[in-house]
Amino acid sequence: MGDESVFDDDVDPADGDSAVLGGVSQPRLLQVYSTEPVVVGFGGASLPDDHNLSAYREELRDLLEKHGRGELAFDLTGVSLVPSGIVGLFESLVREGVRVSVFNASREVREVFAVTQTDQRVSLHDVDVSPSSDAS
């Protein structure tokens, strides 16, 4: 896991930081899991309907540029529903030439992606994230 602090809740947002929108602070749910490849997620938390994910757009662009990457993976494990902003975020990244992969999208999220045809522009994958029974 990378030691990026771009999305950490422990960091006080600076002026203009995306954690502060319209004077109302929102929790920073998006976390960086890895920078090689760039993988971000929500720590298994559900997203509030009013959470503005599009505010992370610039931070994601900066993260991709910093690490010389043209692909971004989103882990949606534990996210049962997505606000419309995530569809807009994915679509805008794809329009900018970023290859977006989504892992472990719930049935409901897949339905949203199908209705909006986002599933035709992002790669959807399922991976088993359960702990191995062989672990000692």
Key words describing this protein structure:
136 residues, alpha/beta, 23% helix, disordered N terminus
Give a description of the structure:
The chain is of the alpha/beta class and 136 residues long. It has one domain (30-125): 2-Layer Sandwich (Transcription Regulator spoIIAA), CATH 3.30.750. It has 3 helices and 7 strands; from the N terminus they run E-E-E-E-H-E-H-E-H-E. The chain has helices at 57-66, 84-95, 107-115, and strands spanning 20-21, 24-25, 31-35, 38-41, 71-75, 99-103, 123-125. A 5-stranded mixed β-sheet has the order 3-4-5-6-7, covered by helices on one side. It has a two-stranded antiparallel sheet with strand order 1-2. The longest helix is centred in the middle third of the chain and has 12 residues, at 84-95. Mean pLDDT is 75; it is low at 1-26.
Compact overview of the structure:
The protein is an alpha/beta fold and 136 residues long. The chain has 3 helices and 7 strands; from the N terminus they run ββββαβαβαβ.
- Per the principal axes of the C-alpha atoms, what is the gross shape? globular
Helix percent band: 10-25%
| Adjacency order of strands in the biggest sheet | 3-4-5-6-7
The main pleated sheet reads as: 5 strands, mixed
Q: For the record, what CATH class applies?
A: Alpha Beta
Strand content of the residues, in percent? 15-25%
Number of helices: 3
Order of helices and strands: EEEEHEHEHE
End-to-end gap: 22 Å
Q: Residue ranges: pLDDT <50 for 5 or more in a row?
A: 1-26
